Recover the amino acids of this structure.
């Protein structure tokens, strides 16, 4: 089945699991390989013949590192991918591959975007407005609870990485591509759990692409919040900030964002106004 822009491609997701466990395989390279081999199934089958595989790569001017070439042509890697794929299926894990219509559009602009997103639960939650709440560990819990309660009271808003019985989206940092990976049976199918591999180099990009708003209650400067904020802005998403004490180092970065033009959140009513539409 050929790749056609704007159409759904139904390719066995096992192949995407196989490609995903190979380090340094990215979206751009997958597109080049797809163009050379016409079908991903052809890529997979031809990789069993090293000489033919290399010949097609040379004909299409595709240069692979020795590490990637060895992994693509390795029977051991294929067997590991089968074990992982079957394990995920047995645990009712679902897949969104990079050619799926459900794959986040913004994420395709990231060179290291994951070619496969694995999830469990209610994928329809992605269609609602989504807000990711960031806070430092020492924030006033009363203020935090009030804001979260207001968000939870809004039917059209989904909170990310905030515990609730139903209607939340959680990013789980797991070693997904370990063949012995075991998913918790305690997770509710009413929520959505997105399983991002620990070794993913674009975890912040994935989060930013799926989130509509970043709500920062307070933040000191650190690489994680800086990168997440950068990615949110790069994707054209809105940054919301609760002002903090100018003498508190844990509010330095959040106050800086206010100075740079982030939207101000002073109370729960502001939350209501922002998400009312």
């Amino acid at each position: 089945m050929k790749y056609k822009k704007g159409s759904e491609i139904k390719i066995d997701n096992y192949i995407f699991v196989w490609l995903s466990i190979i380090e340094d395989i990215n979206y751009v390279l997958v597109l080049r390989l797809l163009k050379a081999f016409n079908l991903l199934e052809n890529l997979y089958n031809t990789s069993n013949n090293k000489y033919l595989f290399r010949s097609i790569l040379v004909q299409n001017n595709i240069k692979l590192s020795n590490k990637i070439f060895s992994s693509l042509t390795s029977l051991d890697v294929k067997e590991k991918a089968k074990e992982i794929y079957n394990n995920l299926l047995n645990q009712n894990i679902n897949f969104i591959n990079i050619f799926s219509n459900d794959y986040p559009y913004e994420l395709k602009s990231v060179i290291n975007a994951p070619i496969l997103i694995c999830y469990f639960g209610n994928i329809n939650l992605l269609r609602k407005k989504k807000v990711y709440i960031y806070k430092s560990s020492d924030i006033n819990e009363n203020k935090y609870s009030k804001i979260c309660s207001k968000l939870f009271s809004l039917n059209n808003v989904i909170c990310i990485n905030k515990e609730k019985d139903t209607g939340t989206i959680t990013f789980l940092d797991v070693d997904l591509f370990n063949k012995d990976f075991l998913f918790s049976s305690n997770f509710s199918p009413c929520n959505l759990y997105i399983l991002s591999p620990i070794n993913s180099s674009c975890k912040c990009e994935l989060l930013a692409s799926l989130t509509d708003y970043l709500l920062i209650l307070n933040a000191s400067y650190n690489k994680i919040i800086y990168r997440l904020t950068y990615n949110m802005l790069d994707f054209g998403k809105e940054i919301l900030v609760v002002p903090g004490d100018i003498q508190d180092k844990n509010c330095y970065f959040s106050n800086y964002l206010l100075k740079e033009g982030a939207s101000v959140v002073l109370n729960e009513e502001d939350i209501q106004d922002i998400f009312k539409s």
User: Anything to note?
Assistant: DSSP finds eleven helices and nine strands in the chain. Residues 1-10 have pLDDT under 50 and may be disordered.
